[in-house]
Every structure is written in structure tokens, then in C-alpha cells.
Amino acid sequence: MNEAKTFYIIDLDRTLLDTEKSARLFEDVVADHDVDISHLLTQELERANKLGESFSMQSFVADKLPVAELNMIEAAFSERAARIDLLLPHAQKLLDLLDHAQKDYGILTYGSVEGQKLKIRVSGLGTIPHSITQIAEKGEVIASWRNESGQFIIPTELSPKGLVVEYIVLVDDRVRSFDGLPDNAAGFWVANNGFDNNETTPLRAQKVTDLEELLGIILNDPFVDKA
Fold first, then answer.
1. Is residue 209 located within the same domain as residue 138?
2. Are residues 107 and 37 in the same domain?
3. Stretch (H or E) spanning 4
4. Residue 53 and residue 159: Cα distance in Å, rounded?
5. Does residue 70 form part of some domain?
6. Cβ atoms within 10 A of the Cβ of 123, count?
7. DSSP single-letter state for residue 200
8. Inter-CA distances, 59 with 14, 74, 87, 114, 169, Å
9. pTM of the entire predicted model
């Protein structure tokens, strides 16, 4: 395996992806296909948002329609998404910064496998190594990668070339994601989503308002290798 000093784990929803814009676009596509299902979808989405719960719009529609119709909706969604930018402001700048600095990174997202795959694909992030977890506490997921020496063995879906690193930096919008983050890892809590704004900054994380603020400090983070 190759060795590096730091690996960046970046969240998808409300961190890189403008989830609200993506949801509105998906709602519009579903409404064009079936108004009744669209109304039900909107109601369930509003309920989940009020509770701050994870909700897969793709899974909801998949349970209501035959596969052929679902495929038509996803194709129309992809076609419309290609005409607009579904990323949050400064998301692409963050990725470009990491690429320019030759930093290793991948997307770790929580939620429905098919729903998250669809969002990654239509937002233009499909070329970035990514993994979908069913565990909301990403810190615990990251801790499970540690070897006997305390280093992290990065899963192959996040680093096809194979990496063992000393440090992990987690960038995420949900406080719960940082639960279980080990002592040789740190994070940036992007507190711009409206769900967790009143929460206390999680242990081992630094609060930033948005990605623009993160861009200004990320290369000075103590876990960033200078090579």
C-alpha cells in the first residue's frame, strides 16, 4: 500500500451538494410524471426536514412506481441537472484546492445507496472516489479503519490506489457525524444547513460557517501535510 500523511473525508448533502436545490429539481421532475406522487413526496420531504431526518426521495418514488417509470424519472432528472450547477458555493473551489495541492480525498455519504448514487452522478461528482454508509456516526466508521499502529487503512472505494495515512480530516454538516472520531483525526463542522445550528461544536472539530470560510483556513490546519 502507498503511504500518505492526511486523507480528507468530505460529506455530500449540504456540504458539497445543494441538497435543497437538488430536491426541488427532483420534485419538479416527479410532478411532470405523476402529480399525486409528487404531492405525497413533498409532504414526506417537509416532514423529514422539520425533524432533521435523512430522507431518500429516490427510494420513496421507487416504492410507488414500476422500474420503467422510475428509470424515466431518473433520466429526466439527470438531463435537467446537467443544465445547472447543483453544488454549493465554493464546493468546486474546495475540490480544486485539494487537487492542486495533491491531497488525497473521497466522499463519504450517509443514506440510501441508490438515492445517494443518483445525487452523486447528477451533480457531476461521479469521478471522485466515494462510499455510502448506513452508519450516521462517521467518526465510528473512520475509527474502524485504524490498524494496530493507529494508522488508517483507507477503504479501496475511497482510494483505489490503496492508502495508509496518519491523519483523517472530516468535513461534514451534521454534528452526529463526528461521533466516535479518534484522536488522530479532526474535522470541520460546516454549520450552514439549518438543522444543527444550535448544537455545540463537536469534539475534535472546528466550526466554520460555510465552505468559503473553510477555504481560508484548510491549508493551515495542523493535520494538513505540507509536502
1. yes
2. no
3. strand 2-10
4. 29
5. yes
6. 21
7. P
8. 19, 12, 22, 7, 30
9. 0.91
**Burial environment of residue 98 by CB neighbours within 10 A (0 to 12, 13 to 18, 19 or more):** middle
Half-sphere exposure of 112 (CA within 13 A, CB side): 15
The C-alpha cell at 25 is: 429539481
Q: What is the CATH number of the domain that holds 116?
A: 3.40.50.1000
Assess contact for 205 and 196: CB atoms under 8 A.
no
Confidence of residue 131 (pLDDT cuts 50, 70, 90): very high
Q: Which set of grid coordinates corresponds to residue 28? A: 419538479
Domain count of the fold of the chain: 2
State pLDDT tens for residues 84-130. Answer: 999 999 999 999 999 988 889 999 999 999 999 999 999 999 999 99
Give the β-pairing of 130-133 and 104-110.
parallel
Q: Which domain holds residue 68?
A: 19-81
Q: Give every CB contact of residue 32 below 8 A, 6+ residues apart in sequence.
A: 76
Distance (Å, whole) CA 70 – CA 206: 41
Same structural domain, 45 and 57 = yes
Percent of the chain topping pLDDT 70? 93
List the one residue out of 12, 15, 14, 39 whose CA is nearest residue 27: 39
